[in-house]
Design goal:
By secondary structure, the protein is mostly helical. Helix content is about 70%, strand content about 5%.
Length: about 350
């Protein structure tokens, strides 16, 4: 898998690919598996929130809904990362350059969107716990405006600059620049200095500050919840409220952990990759697998988010279970192996089409 001696049949006989066919197969399996899991998990969460009014009219759920959209976009473009890191590593063709530009622009935009959403989610949770009167005055349209501002800022500061910074070009593998280590679809070398400036300005604002902010706000929330639990006299009403607050804190901590797992490796690689390192087989190998593995972590974090949404919210778990039973499994008769529609015909996967039964979950 980690073979640094497999030669690529090019005019340059000294150039060697930093991966082999086994590495391609393993990478494809992992990324495509994450693609399927990401589409299923985030698609299911999106459908559950949209279906039930109790969820869709909750400000927190609006942020989760928007996060699902961001993660769905990331999942849908993940096959382009696989292509640029494997089959299109040296030559981007036959895909046109616009696919390369769109991948980078959409990827960086959704990274900014995710970071700002999670920080906003933490701030909103802090307000609801420490200032419940202020939170109760918030309306759905307040949350919608907040979310819209995040998307617009991420588009203007992430998508648009990235569209001009990145592109697909044949790389000079014999040069001593970082460009020699990168895939065909990456930073346009003429925009390299601008990209470094973009990193120094936008990454701290849209990734590092939200990351630090989430840790600080979560720590404050945990401290506040503990102080409140000690001061309040025991009662059934207080116990229920404290239970809800603890579930909210759990959900937020899980989402924060997922965020840290995905974005610390991502930003670490982005800054490491632009360093002036020797263009040797070792550094080609290190650059390639560092970039590939950090993306595995990023995709993993986006795939487990729907699981964390449910683990941290009893209401979300109940509605997800209800949605699966009434919208997905309701058409399957497990006793007879048939697929049926309410008030309609039954279609059996078996030879006997005459049997019908009670729909599961109805």
């Amino acid at each position: 898998m980690f073979n640094v001696t497999t030669a690529l049949p090019t005019e340059n006989a000294t150039y060697e690919r930093p991966f082999d066919e086994i590495g391609i197969a393993v990478s494809a399996f992992i990324i495509l598996a994450f693609l399927v899991l990401g589409l299923f998990g985030n698609g299911l969460t999106f459908a559950v929130i949209v279906t039930y009014r109790m969820l869709s009219e909750n400000v927190f759920m609006r942020f989760i809904l928007s996060l699902c959209v961001s993660d769905l976009i990331s999942a849908l473009i993940s096959w382009l990362f696989l292509y640029r890191r494997t089959w299109g590593f040296d030559v981007w063709a036959p895909l046109p350059d616009i696919f390369c530009k769109f991948y980078w622009a959409a990827d960086i935009m959704t990274n900014f969107v995710t970071a700002l959403h999670i920080f906003s989610f933490a701030v909103l949770r802090l307000i609801s716990i420490q200032f419940p009167v202020v939170y109760n005055k918030m309306k759905i349209w307040h949350g919608n405006i907040w979310i819209a501002i995040i998307w617009v800022l991420s588009f203007l500061c992430g998508f648009l600059p990235s569209w001009f910074i990145f592109g697909a070009n044949e790389r000079d593998r014999l040069s001593n620049s970082p460009d020699a280590r990168w895939p065909a679809c990456t930073v346009i070398w003429e925009q390299f200095e601008f990209y470094k400036l973009f990193q120094e300005v936008c990454y701290p604002i849209f990734l590092y500050l939200p990351l630090v902010g989430v840790v600080v706000v979560c720590s404050a929330i945990v401290f506040i919840v503990r102080i409140k639990s000690r001061k309040v006299a025991p009662s059934k009403k207080c116990e229920k409220r404290q239970k809800r607050e603890k579930q909210a804190v759990l959900q937020l901590l899980l989402i924060m952990a997922s965020f840290l797992i995905g974005y610390i490796p991502f930003t670490a690689y982005e800054f490491w990759a632009v360093q002036d390192l020797p263009v040797t087989p070792y550094y080609r190998f290190a650059d390639y697998w560092f970039g590939m593995i950090e993306y595995f972590f990023l995709r993993f974090s986006e795939c487990v988010n729907p699981l964390f949404y449910n683990l941290g919210s009893a209401k979300m778990r109940r509605h997800t279970k209800k949605f699966i039973q009434t919208k997905i499994l309701c058409c399957i008769d497990w006793k007879k192996g048939t697929f049926s529609q309410r008030g309609g015909r039954s279609f059996s996967a078996t030879v006997d089409r005459s049997t019908t039964g009670t729909n599961f979950g109805v």
